[in-house]
Amino acid sequence: MKSVRYIMLFWGAFLAYHAVFGQSTSNSLDSTAALTYWYQPSFVIMHDMALRNRVWIPEEIKNRSSLFGIRHSRGQGDFKAAQGTDGLSQSQLYTEGKTDWRKTSFWGRFSYDRSAEDSTALRHQSRWNVDAPLYFGSLRKNKYSREIYKLDAGIQRAFFDAKLPISLDIDYRLGSHYSNNDPRGDIKDMNLQFELSVGHNLPTFSYHIAGIWGYGSERVNVGYKNDKYTTNTEDPLYVNWMMNGFGSASERLKEINYNDIIHRKGVGAHILLKPNDRNKIYFNSRYLNEEQSFRRNDNSKQTYLSLNDYKKDIGSIDFLWSRQMHRKRLLRVVLQGQIENGQDFNYSYLANNYTYRRHEISFKTQLAVHQYLFEGHAGMYKTEKKDGVSGNQMEFDQVKLGLGLNRTFRLGQSANIIGTIGYTKQWSPSHNLYVSELNTGDFGKQILYQDYLYDTAPSNSWNMSWVWGTHHAKNNWSIQLQVDYQCRGNLVPIDHTFSSVPGKNWFSGKLGVSYIY
Q1: Lower Cβ count inside 10 Å, N or C end of the chain?
Q2: Domains of the chain: residue spans and CATH
Q3: Total-model pTM
């Protein structure tokens, strides 16, 4: 494990080094001030699209500009999901850069996250595989520590007079999640994904076809330092439960462990239209098939006992239109959509028991006028979860609408301040919950009811961020401050006695420093 971490640190430094000292070819972004490129929302929206679809790294990532930063964030409140945390403290170290060297574009990003969660209950988890049907949990609130290493890279080389680009993208994640109090969850996760693309560039039209392959794993183990809890059945807080479905949990006093083996494969398509110098239209789509196999190691001939196979199909679209208008006006429109359909094969019943569906579509538009940037965004989300044996079923829609305003202030000749304020309103126009009182125990009911109240609650969110930074030709510093506050409205009325319900507020803040070179 440590050797892999050192390799990731080395590659992060290597990519940052070449982003500065590599030979480059200029593009339209090279003349943009570094602070503006990294923190002004009209550039961030293009940068993020290129990171989601890395065949566009040569088009939308600034060359020979690297970022090295640290930031710390804290969150506190009681408006949270059942398996959320009452308090979060997170620190991150990150670096990112891109360069063109000998007709090849290199991009890389390395990050290290360390976080501590105060009072996390009902699930021992890594917080990325949230829809999985199988997991362990306990009623007692635990303190969790998490470490995550991520290394992402993209390489593109264009052959035959830049008409045939070939791209390779690599994503690698290594995570460690553990509790320091009983019951002690210990989760290790690893994910590796490759995407290989071949394209064709024409003066006003470009397209790429991609193949995707990925592999990952989770190793989960729950134990006790105090031996008296290993045979505990009297204190419900220390009893571990195994969820294998949606609400149908059973007590586990031994063999509280499993391995989750993950395989992914898929295809992608990317198109760029440039009808003239003022317009660029990107269209990206992907299909991904993911298969997870939950197993417990044993002494059988096949060396493991199968618990659950979970398969999920994910389809997504990512559209962006950028239009440069007269009088320094700029319009950008983003449309994103995703459909996830998952179902399991439960080896206890030798049949499909759990189904999961998530449909979402979001829209964002930006209008830049001189030093001002106006933003509007909207999203619709639909989630369905069902358990065949218990009959538990949850369905809810969510709608989000928001507005934002950004302005850049000049402070003399050597510094800028970029300020942003925003507001988002969320509500659930349609929702339904059925919980079987006979087939669902107290552990499952607490999760189902609390999540339903949280996901259907209306809320108002406000956010504000400020970025101060120097404005030199190279070697700049920046300081970032962000504050977010969310407050819910009335909960959906339910005829049930609750041990816990979502609270009223959630507050979070971030403070960061970065060096741009």
Answers
A1: N
A2: 2-516 (2.40.170)
A3: 0.92
